[in-house]
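lol ok so funny story. i was supposed to be doing the assay writeup but got distracted and ended up predicting the structure for this chain instead. priorities right. anyway since i did it might as well share w the group, maybe its usefull for someone
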Amino acid sequence: MTIGQATDDRAAIDSSAATVKVPLLGRVTCPHCWHQFPPEDSAWISSDHKDLRGDPKLSPDHPRRFKAERFNVQGNAIDA
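and the output, tada:
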């Protein structure tokens, strides 16, 4: 094998790695109650800021749950 062949092999691996599809879960499981649901039904919990309190199902003292549409580079939801 020559150096040129090794470089070509690495390029082939790199290009195929860029097109590999990652299978996503069709259902996720709640770690607290073990209920399974589609990932698009996930709700994020807002930060502990006083203006983001008032969950309609729990109480006015609890942080709100929301559907995330924007995320930071770490993948965390940005509070609305």
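Strands lie at 28-29, 36-37, 44-45, 65-66. Residues 57 and 67 are 15 Å apart (CA to CA).
back to the writeup now i swear
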